[in-house]
Write the structure tokens for this entry.
Amino acid sequence: MNANYQPVQRQERVEILDLLRGFALLGIFMVNMPLMNAPFLVEMAEFSLWTDPVNEKARWIIDFFFTGKFYTLFSMLFGIGFYFFMKKADESGNSVLGLFKRRLGWLLAIGVLHVVLLWYGDILVFYALFGFLMLLFRKKSNKSLLIWAGCILLLPVLFSTLLVVFIKLALSVPEVAEDMLAGFEATAIHMQQLFDHLIEVYATGSFGEIVSARLEEYKNILGGILFFFPNVLAMFLVGMVFARIRVFEDIEANKPFFRKLLIYSLPAALFGCWLYATYAAQSSYIMFEWSLVLTIAGLGFGGPAMTFVYISLIAFCYQKSYFKTLSKAIQKTGRMALTNYLMQSVVATTIFFSYGLGLYGQVDIVQGMILVTGIYVVQVIWSHFWLKHYRFGPMEWLWRTLTYGKKQKMKL
């Protein structure tokens, strides 16, 4: 391995990217909290645990402002990181493809361990797998990348539309309809049994039983690859374009770009997020209806659009004096994004699962939002003090050490 390759040094970091990572950590945790405290089925209309008006409003707020906005922001940042990593080849004259694949391989391993040992809702596995696909796009033009991104965003809407049309046509045939309806009913019964089983296991089961239940949940969510995860790859490509045109390296000079990005994104963001927040609570993933198509369309386009709105607003606030203190604090959290992301799972599962406080299914959405805020504030404070003494977060240090094949200097 070429000894000249090194991680990005502290003085080389683009600070607003760390700020965006830190901001994304809060948003992702806010979305994940209800799913850490209840089975994945709780997102379906048939299995909602908290249906009182206050919690329904809280869920609407999370769906409108948080869901689908922050894993896409992280995805965009991953695309930017991909571009910076590939630039090492241009600067050194040597290929870094092997090193990048090694980096993704270790990220995949960390993601797999995250799924097995902590929580089924891991995103790292998909980041790693889609990262390998990014290699196919590295030499394409910016225009081509944006066209590909747009087409990939359309895939979930197209697939869900075709699925609903097929089901509607099949149900119009009496001989077929009877068997299909019986199948839907059997699926609903199985899902209810699974829902009840998961609540019992997470609240009272042994660690081994919890691991088994978690893998069962993970198997069930893999169908979401076709509905939700194409956004990850699309935003990878957008991030690569943003890195190429260097929009984050001089915020003041690029304010006209962010102004246009805000103006063009805001209408799609408001309409798409309203669609998702309105129809997500009504949609069934057992009996596919048109409300599901509207939900997926709202998430698929409203999510990335709102991500661009948030990026633009942060860019406008970034150099303002009133934003400096908060910005510096959140940047530290973003510099340790991998560590903080995994620690959120450690803390939440310890609170909810039987081997910790055993509060699974007992913390409602509003209480979860308060809990997220408190834990995140602790992470901000902890990150600040950790980085006073160390160059990386613990997991960032481990990932870099494994990637470069030699122990990285940890202490400042």
Remarks:
- Residues 329 and 381 are 8 Å apart (CA to CA).
